[in-house]
Design goal:
Layout lengths: L8 H23 L10 E3 H8 L3 H9 L6 E3 L2 E5 H11 L4 H17 L1
Antiparallel strand pairs: 1-3, 2-3
């Protein structure tokens, strides 16, 4: 790092301000970039089971009970990511905190009525 003389100080500060503006512009451009749409990603049966965090035989049970949407091409199954996300959301068990919060809300609503 080199020393800056008193006479060069305004020029150095101006240069630094320009660099900061450029960094801010780059950051704004990166945050405004559209997120990649992954809802149409396709998964095979083993990939879909892994995505949902379960064993293949368990996942097959949900398929044959028509709990998860999928398409069969010959002997192969294909699943869309948006359908897997919906399946996970619909069939997940609520946590203890979520159950506690729901019970508290029901109790407070009954007392108000």
């Amino acid at each position: 790092m080199e020393a800056i003389s008193y006479n060069d100080l305004p020029q150095a500060v101006g240069k630094l301000a320009n660099q900061m503006n450029r960094i801010e512009e780059l950051l704004e451009a990166s945050t405004q970039a559209k997120p990649k749409d992954t809802s149409n990603n396709k998964y095979t049966l083993p990939e879909a089971a892994a995505y949902c965090g379960m064993a293949e035989p368990t996942f097959r049970t949900y398929i044959y009970r028509r709990k998860v949407a999928g398409t069969k091409f010959g002997k192969a199954w294909l699943f869309l990511e948006k359908d897997l996300d919906k399946f996970i959301q619909d069939y997940r068990k609520p946590t203890a905190k979520e159950l506690e919060k729901e019970a508290f809300e029901k109790l407070t609503n009954q007392r108000r009525a």
